[in-house]
Amino acid sequence: TGEERDLVAGARHIAATVEMCPFHTPVDVAIIDEAQMLDDADRGAAWTAAIMGVPARTVIVLGAPDCAAMVHRVASLSADPVEEVRLERKSPLAAAASPVKLADLGRGDALIAFSRREVLSLRAALMARGRSVACVYGALSPEVRRAEARRFREGQADILVATDAIGMGLNFGPLRRVVFSALAKWDGREQRPLSVQDIKQIGGRAGRFGHQDEGLVAVLAGAGEPATIARALTATP
Length: 237
Known about the structure:
Layout: E1 27-32, H1 44-53, E2 56-61, H2 68-78, E3 93-95, E4 109-112, H3 116-128, E5 133-136, H4 142-153, E6 159-162, E7 177-180, E8 184-186, E9 191-193, H5 196-203, E10 215-219, H6 226-234
Parallel strand pairs: 1-2, 3-10, 4-6, 4-7, 5-6, 7-10
Antiparallel strand pairs: 8-9
């Protein structure tokens, strides 16, 4: 990553953030995940560069269905053939019928906020109620982020409070329910409503095949309407 390197002599595989794509290391296969980020105003160029420039015989591009048109366009610019494979989620994702009160959060729940200040405020409020809480946000070091994810995954913390960084890159284990503390976020330019892709990407961490029958996505009481979640989860790409 941009923050750390773990180099192992003789390793046959490389894992890296997209900005650290190893352009000078030819490989048989490159797998580029989260390709819907092609549409991101700040980081999309890194995905474009990786898909077009990674020195691999085969490039496997993974992403939400929304990214298919963009991937086809990038491939056409490179004159590369594309085989598109669509996979269906194995465990259903459902919107909760009613908002969730802070006091009703329990083991296996993830509460999503959109600033460090709000994450820390919600963590304090839950701890004041006697709950054990793991906390993850972008400004934490990679070691601390992994340690907090491990605490939640291994049951040392009942509730996870995190920013939308939960959507990519960390293994939190099976989440029973994802609860949004707000349905709008500051994107660096303006306060805007969460997009369909935001809700699907983050909410999609709820439920895991073989662990829960379904994943639930909800909104905190007073923060918005459950119908907004339901419309996003059923929206077509």
